[in-house]
Specification:
This protein has 421 residues and is α/β, with parallel strands linked by helices. The chain has 2 domains: 205 residues, Periplasmic binding protein-like II (D-Maltodextrin-Binding Protein, domain 2, 3-Layer(aba) Sandwich), CATH 3.40.190.10; 200 residues, Periplasmic binding protein-like II (D-Maltodextrin-Binding Protein, domain 2, 3-Layer(aba) Sandwich), CATH 3.40.190.10. It contains 19 helices and 10 strands. Strands 1, 2, 3, 4, 5, 6, 7, 8, 9 and 10 form a 10-stranded mixed sheet that branches. Helix 2 links the parallel strand 2 and strand 3. Helix 11 packs across helix 19 and helix 18 packs antiparallel against helix 19. The longest helix has 25 residues. The protein is globular, with a radius of gyration of 22 Å.
Length: 421
């Protein structure tokens, strides 16, 4: 294989920009005048690592004049590295990142992302991508990024543990979900797992509760508009239930562990539920969960909307070989590239013409969830700018630790918004 894999330690954030400067834009240093394209992505393990390496190898075999260099980091170090590289020439050619104002939009605003209009026209990407995926690339004006993953999130559950607790049907209402959690707890089973140290993991529960108690229209007004968090009784209800879940139904010590550590509880059958995306099935199987024990259902918010977000591969303005980078992007989102990647990154493809294999974990279940959805509600760390997200997480964590009462949480968050608007 021609591709290189550089695993960058999370503790080496201070040296990341210098490391990238030596690796990215390597056209001048590549042998025989070959183009080198550096990709910064999230840490990939198991099947994800295998299919990514295979895709890179297949692309390089078809394009021997292009070498792909992959650098990986865990989620938060990845964010730190890109923010540190913004405004410099030390960044990669391509980086994987989320959409939304609070993440992808932040880097677009500071000039970290190149407008890809010429490549969308050259390769016909707008016609190739699904409408939902394409929306993630056009939300900032022009075309920023090529959609890589269209993530849909739901409640993963362990069928064997549900049966052990006497639960015969998946919950279809919030009240039934709480009743199921109590049945699991009564049976000595941890109802739901989360890792609190990364903030965004447990945020998924809070986001879903806001959607449940405020409804779709009010939730959008609060998260994407000028709604007043301190004036809505539904916000207090959501935070009250959030605190109750933390006290009664989440894994012991969840605030002190990461999402990866928490996931091990689900893989090993020690926790019955979690809120994850359509990338999680293969990971759970790699982690040891029998496929026949795994199922999914939409968090029963009552709005009919599905939870989710988009991830994209962005091109930096400093890329020395943008044409080579665009050629690699075109391959990844093509039917051939999507077949190579399979369902390791997402059960649902961004390519409108691609049909995922029927034997991929939970394929039919995901397709049914998407087909029946009345819309989408988005993770709030993508709705909010970065500073606002940090305050949102401070409030959510303070509610869980008892430092802020649920009745005061909305007003506390709104006070920050008013002071920083």
């Amino acid at each position: 294989m021609l591709s290189n894999r550089t695993i960058v330690s999370a503790i080496a954030v201070g040296a990341m920009a210098l490391t990238a400067a030596a690796c990215s834009g390597g056209g001048d240093g590549a042998e025989g005048g070959a183009s080198e394209v550096t990709v910064w992505t999230l840490t990939q393990e198991g099947e994800r690592q295998e299919v990514w390496d295979a895709a890179v190898e297949a692309f390089e075999e078809a394009n021997p004049d292009i070498t792909i260099v992959t650098e990986e980091r865990a989620t938060d170090p990845h964010k730190d590295a890109l923010r540190q590289a913004a405004g410099t020439d030390a960044g990669p050619d391509i980086y994987r990142y989320w959409g939304g104002a609070g993440l992808g939009g932040e880097l677009v605003e500071v000039g970290m992302s190149a407008d890809l209009t010429q490549y969308y026209e050259e390769y016909g990407w707008a016609d190739e991508l699904t409408p939902t995926a394409l929306q993630n690339a056009t939300q900032y004006g022009g075309y920023h990024g090529v959609p890589f993953i269209q993530a849909t999130e739901a409640v993963f559950y362990n069928k064997a543990l549900f049966e052990q607790a006497g639960i015969t049907e998946v919950p279809s209402t919030y009240e039934e979900l709480v009743a199921a959690a109590q049945s699991l707890k009564d049976a000595g089973i941890t109802p739901m797992e989360f890792g609190g140290t990364v903030n965004w993991h447990v945020m998924r529960l809070l986001d879903s509760l806001i959607e449940t108690f405020c409804g779709a229209e009010k939730a959008d007004e609060l998260t994407q508009g000028d709604g007043d968090w301190g004036a809505e009784p539904c916000v207090t209800e959501a935070f009250t239930e959030f605190k109750m879940w933390g006290d009664e139904y989440l894994n012991e010590g969840f605030m002190a562990i990461s999402n990866d550590d928490a996931s091990q509880l689900f893989y090993s059958g020690q926790a019955a539920m979690t809120i994850e995306g359509n990338w999680f099935g293969p990971m759970a199987i790699d982690g040891g969960l029998p496929p026949e024990d795994m199922g999914i259902f939409t968090f029963p918010t009552g709005t009919g909307r599905v939870y989710g977000f988009g991830e994209l591969l962005y091109l930096t303005p400093s890329a020395e070989n943008p044409d080579a980078a665009a050629k690699f992007l075109d391959y990844l989102i093509s039917v051939e590239g999507q077949e190579q990647l399979g369902g390791a990154f997402s059960t649902l493809s961004v390519n409108a013409d691609f049909e995922p294999p029927a034997d991929e974990p939970l394929t039919e279940d995901w397709q049914k969830i998407v087909a029946e959805a009345d819309g989408l509600y988005v993770n709030n760390d993508q709705n909010f700018p970065t500073a606002e997200t940090s305050e949102f997480w401070r409030v959510q964590n303070s509610v869980l630790t008892g430092d802020i009462a649920p009745a005061d949480a909305g007003a506390e968050f709104q006070k920050w918004r008013d002071a920083n608007s």
